[in-house]
Amino acid sequence: MVTKRIIPCLDVKDGNVVKGVNFEGLREVGDAVEMGISYAAEGADELVYLDISASHEGRKTFVELVRRIAEGINIPFTVGGGISSLDDASRMLDAGADKISINSAAIADPSLIGKIAGKYGNQFVVCAIDAKCMDGVWRATTHGGRILTDKELMSWAKEAQERGAGEILFTSMDHDGTKGGYPCELYARLCEELSIPVIASGGAGSAKDIADVLTIGRADAALAASIFHFREISIPELKKELYECNINVRL
């Protein structure tokens, strides 16, 4: 039985972790390195760091932060946010990241997925998709959810896989930060369409929500932020509950 992964997500702005609801209303939560070390010690399987600083100077600061994270933790971590070229990806991987996540840049230039996978391998490339339901159709967005595209979730995820993505990280913008649960039926459909792992993101409010998306939703991993950042449940407590639900997790 495949081991399901639990992945805290840390949105980083100017070196600090922030969190909002539906991608808005950000507030500071804590230091990015210290929180990563704490989550690794608690038993997180991986971490995802997303740089939401907009400026070029912010990008430079983030590379330095990635180096500090790599020195401080002993579990795999993915970085994303503003990676728009092979050089950008190389800088992050050279700084110590285990994988990179691309989103807006992949939609603007889908060949970027293949370029990065071609140089480093599929396992290094996570294609992140932030989508919202518009008139019954799940459409991908770019630029932190601000720009709606004509890319439909399922077809874009399959294209990303074909171009070399090793994983899909799908965030439902309609559920992000609401703690109301994941859209499990949608995840199940997505997992049915793909042969690569799917990471579920957006909506975790309880251990049951995570259990549901890993079983009903068939996701390979659950990514969450608020419930971990605000200590609503610890990772050991969550994994114990999942194990008791017969979900295979690393204890």
Structure description:
With 251 residues, the chain is α/β, with parallel strands linked by helices. Helix content is 38%, strand content 29%. The chain is built from ten helices and twelve strands. The chain has an eight-stranded parallel β-barrel with strand order 1-4-5-6-7-10-11-12, surrounded by seven helices. Strand 4 (47-51), helix 2 (56-72) and strand 5 (77-80) form a beta-alpha-beta unit. Helix 1 (32-42) packs parallel to helix 2. The mean pLDDT is 91.
Number of helical segments with 4 or more residues: 10
Contiguous low-pLDDT stretches (5 residues minimum) are: none
Query: Which of globular, elongated, flat, extended, rod-shaped describes the shape?
Result: globular
Order of helices and strands: EEEHEHEHEHHEEEHEHEHEHH
Question: What's a concise summary of this model?
Answer:
By secondary structure, the chain is of the alpha/beta class. It is 38% helix and 29% strand.
Annotate the secondary structure layout.
Elements: E1 5-13, E2 16-21, E3 24-31, H1 32-42, E4 47-51, H2 56-72, E5 77-80, H3 86-94, E6 99-102, H4 104-108, H5 111-120, E7 125-134, E8 137-142, E9 147-152, H6 153-163, E10 167-172, H7 184-193, E11 198-201, H8 207-215, E12 221-224, H9 226-229, H10 235-244
Parallel strand pairs: 1-4, 1-12, 4-5, 5-6, 6-7, 7-10, 10-11, 11-12
Antiparallel strand pairs: 1-2, 2-3, 7-8, 8-9
Helix pairs in contact: 1-2
